[in-house]
């Protein structure tokens, strides 16, 4: 099951579970659309994998399957990558 991480790893923007602007790689590294668009080739800066739109978990399923509350943030953001 997807973690549904709560923020962009680059800019720390909130990405709630119903956000249509969350993108993930196969390792679930999570980025907002603005940061994704600025990454080289729109690839994950951690693994080089493809960043695709994260599925939205139906609201009715969130109580039994809550999103992660763990925020992951690159210490220096992604400024060096842009």
TrEMBL record:
Q: Name one Pfam family in it.
A: DUF1272
The record, for InterPro entries, names: DUF1272
**Protein name (Swiss-Prot/TrEMBL):** DUF1272 domain-containing protein
Tell me which species this is from: Azospirillum picis
């Amino acid at each position: 099951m997807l973690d549904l991480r709560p923020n962009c790893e680059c800019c720390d923007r909130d990405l709630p579970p119903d956000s249509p602007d969350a993108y993930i790689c196969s390792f679930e590294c999570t980025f907002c659309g603005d940061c994704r668009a600025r990454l080289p080739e729109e690839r994950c800066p951690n693994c080089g994998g493809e960043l695709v739109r994260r599925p939205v978990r139906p609201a009715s399923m969130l109580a039994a399957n809550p999103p992660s509350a763990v925020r992951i943030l690159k210490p220096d953001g992604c400024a060096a990558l842009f």
